[in-house]
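Students often ask why inverse folding is considered easier than folding. One informal answer: many sequences map to the same fold, so there is more than one right answer. In these notes we will look at a single instance of the problem. The structure comes first.
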């Protein structure tokens, strides 16, 4: 259902408010560059510091601008099951095509608790659900056996796997087969993950190089391994640059240097350190983005 290059799009701000024009322009650019789907209000979209009305407006505007041209997968995960259901129901009513649900953070539930969380949400809201496993953010790893259990629920259709652990990815694919789509959650793993049987990526780097990410995923999925490998190595410096500082500091700085958004984040995220900004600028220059 969801495959290829899926951008975890930034939320542009101007004077501490959603910059609707900048978001609209970004979405149009992504569609013209070949991005296969858009995720508003993910980690890269600074969902943690969006108020509810802002969160819903970002999803609503994305759905309106996309207008059915590509899928919209709304980030609606929370560390409370009831809150996750509430936000997911709202995203469905707005018109999102799917929901990205992060592993509940801070609570550190057991694997059984994880299973029950996702099962409860899936049974409460009839929308395609993408699991999101990112232990670096949540301090909890959703194990392959838990993913395999969840893959038996009809509207749990994919997982964004952001452990960076190819052994874990391999085990998920081996256990689940075609019952669930596996997507990369770390740009440097996208090419090897597709080679293992995955289908694409929910990407940070696609924010700044959408055409190359889309082309790499397409080539890899179509069996054009040499071209996919070439693009993988071309993208590697950019992938590293996106994580010089905590995401989305680097990617928003990059987009501002490219003239696409204001360089504005919400505390506790702050402006990039001057030496790191210079490193990032050189990466963008070498890549040909500025």
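Output (designed amino acids):
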């Amino acid at each position: 259902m969801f495959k290829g290059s899926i951008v975890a799009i930034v939320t542009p701000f101007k004077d501490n408010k959603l910059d609707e024009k900048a978001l609209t322009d970004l979405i149009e650019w992504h569609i013209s560059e070949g991005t296969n789907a858009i995720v508003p209000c993910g980690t890269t979209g600074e969902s943690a510091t969006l108020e509810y009305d802002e969160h819903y407006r970002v999803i609503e505007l994305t759905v309106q601008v996309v207008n059915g041209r590509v899928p919209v997968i709304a980030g609606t995960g929370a560390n409370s099951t009831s809150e996750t259901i509430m936000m997911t129901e709202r995203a469905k009513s707005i018109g999102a095509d799917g929901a990205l649900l992060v592993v509940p953070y801070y609570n550190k539930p057991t694997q059984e608790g994880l299973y029950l969380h996702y099962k409860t949400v899936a049974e409460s809201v009839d929308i395609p659900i993408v699991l999101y496993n990112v232990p670096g953010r949540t301090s909890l790893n959703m194990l392959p056996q838990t993913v395999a259990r969840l893959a038996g629920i009809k509207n749990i259709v994919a997982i964004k796997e952001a452990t960076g652990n190819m052994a874990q990815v391999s085990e998920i694919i081996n256990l689940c087969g075609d019952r669930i789509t596996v997507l990369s959650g770390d740009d440097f793993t996208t090419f090897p993950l597709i080679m293992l049987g995955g289908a694409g990526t929910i990407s940070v780097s696609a924010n700044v190089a959408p055409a190359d990410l889309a082309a790499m995923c397409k080539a890899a999925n179509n069996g054009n391994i040499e071209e996919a490998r070439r693009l993988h190595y071309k993208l590697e410096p950019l992938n590293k640059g996106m994580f010089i500082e905590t995401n989305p500091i680097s990617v928003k700085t990059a987009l501002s240097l490219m003239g696409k958004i204001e360089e504005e984040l919400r505390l506790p995220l702050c402006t990039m350190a001057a030496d790191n900004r210079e490193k990032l600028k050189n990466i963008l220059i070498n890549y040909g983005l500025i």
